[in-house]
Hints:
Elements: H1 7-13, H2 15-39, H3 50-65, H4 68-78
Helix pairs in contact: 2-3, 2-4, 3-4
Amino acid sequence: MISSKPFSTILSENADQLAFDAAATVVLAIVVLLWAAVRGTLPAEYREGTAWLVGTAVMFWLAIAFFPAVGVVVYAWVRGVL
């Protein structure tokens, strides 16, 4: 069912969960990148500054657009990191 509450009210009511999801996304993204670096599967463009930032932004977008854990893991799998 679609809520009739204003978006700002929904955000304020769910602020704790949104903050937790954002923190979990950042931590999981860092873990995935570190794991890839240790395994040696980090794509070459991730080591080249700007491309790394763009790739990381895409990963965060995927994580936020779907679910934190699912977005990060799917992106890493598609990129061949996992």
